[in-house]
Amino acid sequence: MTQFDDTVMLHAQGLSKHFVLHNQGGVKIDVFEKVEFTARQGECVILAGPSGSGKSTLLRSLYANYKPQAGSIYVRHGEAWVDLCAARPFQIMEVRRDTLGYVSQFLRVIPRVATLDLVSEPLIGQGLTEEAARKRAETILARLRIPEALWSLPPSTFSGGEQQRVNIAMTFVQDYPILLLDEPTASLDKDNRETVIALINEAKGRGAAIIGIFHDAEVRAAVGTRSYDVTEARQAA
Amino acid sequence: MADVIDHPSRTAAAETRAATGYNFAYLDEQTKRMIRRAILKGVAVPGYQVPFGSREMPLPYGWGTGGIQVTAAVIGPDDTLKVIDQGADDTTNAVNIRSFFAKTAGVATTEKTVEASVIQTRHRIPETPLSEDQILVYQVPIPEPLRWLEPRETETRKMHALEEYGAMHVSLYEDIAKYGRITKSYNYPVKVNGRYVMSPSPIPKFDNPKMDRMPALQLFGAGREKRIYAVPPYTRVKSLDFEDHPFTIETWDQCCALCGAGDSYLDEVVTDDKGGKMYVCSDSDYCEQRREAGHVGDGGDPAYAARNQIPAGDAPAGDEPAGDEPAGDKQ
Amino acid sequence: MTAAPAFRMPDPLLQVRGLTHRYGPHIGCRDVSFDLYPGEVLGIVGESGSGKTTLLKCVSGQMEPTEGSVEYETRDAGLIDLFRMSEARRRLLMRTDWGIVYQNPRDGLRMRVSAGANVGERLMAIGDRHYGHIRSEAVDWLERVEMDIGRIDDMPHTFSGGMQQRLQIARNLVTKPRLVFMDEPTSGLDVSVQARLLDLVRGLVRTLGIACVIVTHDLGVVRLLSHRLMVMKGGNVVESGLTDQVLDDPQHPYTQLLVSSILPV
Question: According to the UniProt entry, which residue ranges have a biased composition of type Low complexity (chain B) (predicted)?
Answer without folding.
Answer: 311-320
